[in-house]
Amino acid sequence: MFLLLWAVKFGKEDYSKYDKVSKKAEAENFVIPFSDTPADNKNVYENAYIKMIYNAKEYVFINTPYLILDNEIKTALVTAARSGVDVRIIVPHIPDKKYVFILTKAFYTELVKEGIKIYEYMPGFIHAKSIVSDGKYAIVGTSNMDFRSFYLHFECGAIIYSEQIADEMTKDYLETVLISKLITENMTKTGLISKLIQAIMRIFAPML
Q1: What is d(CA 161, CA 152) in angstroms, rounded to the nearest whole number?
Q2: Residue 9 domain flag
Q3: 1 within some domain
Q4: What are the two backbone dihedrals, phi and then psi, of residue 180, each rounded to the nearest 5 degrees?
């Protein structure tokens, strides 16, 4: 992945000597690194998230600094929640970019109404970007849950198949929930001006 990005700047070389993959007959725990680029239409990172969300049977716990969703991933989240999956998302309570935080809040109402639990991390700005599911699977990497990360940025991550690591991530997530504020449906109600601002912001969401 590093060499692919290197080639963007310095040109292509013969990288075959670096392409050595260790093969084992069996493995209970393994990690699959992956990268995503705006130079193609594959949307690897978003598709990995969507796949994990749709395959969840018990829970999906997500950390993201920004929550600006397109229809595909929003549909996956809602479908999982309607299927009885415990879907939780932690976002910052203290934003680094106020206009992005306004847009993040614009998604609260429809998600909370569908039974998705949204928490705001109270101590400060949370920059974690991760998803863990069913005590078995996880993704950790550089991508936020927003348009820029999924469509415009070079991103990289790792799909983790490990009950031990997934269990540790789940415990850490539940500890983080304890110092976060659960957003209720009543909290999502806003005045006419706020709704208008959020509606305008959503028009420009793909550029934020």
Answers
A1: 27
A2: no
A3: no
A4: -120, 160
The answer to whether the beta carbons of residues 155 and 35 sit under 8 Å apart is: yes
| CA–CA gap between residue 73 and residue 53 (Å, rounded) | 9
For the chain, which residues score pLDDT lower than 70?
18-27, 98-101, 187-208
CA distance 128 to 204: 24
Query: How far apart (Å, rounded) are the C-alpha atoms in residues 64 and 104?
Result: 10
In contact, 117 and 62? CB cutoff 8 Å = no
pLDDT at 146: 86
The CATH number covering residue 86 comes to 3.30.870.10
pLDDT of residue 149: 87
Residue length, the chain?
208
Q: How many domains does the chain have?
A: 1
Q: 86-118: string of b/e by CB count within 10 Å (b at 16+)?
A: ebbbbbbbebeeeebbbbbbbbbbebbeeebbb
Please write the tens of the pLDDT for every residue from 55-99: 999 999 999 999 988 889 999 999 999 999 999 999 999 877 766
